[in-house]
Design goal:
This protein has eight helices and no strands. The chain is mainly α. It has a single domain (2-193), classed as Heme Oxygenase, Chain A, CATH 1.20.910.
């Protein structure tokens, strides 16, 4: 099954990223959180633009428009006073998205992050008093619709994987994690990424 293949192929890099990100930790500072929102904003927004232009997305009946993270990231940037401070990733820094397999490998990472975002969102409320309305919209995902939307995505992913090159899907998921990992930590040493 494609979900098992994706989990297995991305496990190491996913765990590495979770260990390096201070999100969800009780000692996360507001300043570090602002910097991380700036970094996610700089990567996710250009990635979504590439996704929407990709032949793998334009030829699909999957409606990503209603799942865009850009509005939440822009609301968070405004709430946290980050207007004009974000730098956007260039296309060369993004994973390739030339076909449906690559698109859905990438979407596995992006849509899957909404699940982890639920845990992060609770921690942000508890430790920094950050809510969807004051800088925590991105990590709140789809709120109560997060679980159902994940299941909808998995259904579409299984449909795409049926008869497709599943290795291309898993390679794309790994490439997405690698690109995001590089973007988030490019100028941070492993030590400074762990407060």
């Amino acid at each position: 099954m494609i979900l098992e293949e994706l989990r297995k192929s991305t496990q190491a890099i996913h765990e590495e990223m979770e260990q390096r990100l201070p999100l969800g930790r009780p000692d996360l500072s507001r300043e570090t959180y602002r910097d991380l929102v700036k970094r996610f904003h700089g990567f996710i927004i250009p990635l979504e633009k590439q996704l929407l232009k990709s032949p793998g997305m334009t030829g699909s009946d999957f409606n990503y428009q209603e799942r865009l993270k850009q509005p939440a990231l822009e609301a968070d940037a405004m709430a946290l006073g980050l207007e004009g401070e974000t730098q956007l990733a260039s296309p060369a820094e993004l994973p390739p998205l030339e076909n449906q397999e690559q698109v859905f490998g990438c979407l596995y990472v992006i849509e899957g992050s909404t699940l982890g975002g639920q845990v992060i969102s609770r921690s942000l409320r508890e430790h920094l008093d950050i809510h969807p309305e004051n800088g925590g919209a991105y990590f709140s995902g789809y709120g109560p619709l997060t679980g159902p939307r994940w299941k909808e995505f998995l259904s579409k992913l299984a449909e795409v994987a049926d008869g497709a090159d599943t290795q291309a899907i898993t390679d794309s998921a790994v490439a997405t994690f690698e690109a995001l990992n590089h973007w988030l930590f490019a100028d941070l040493s492993p030590r400074s990424a762990n407060p």
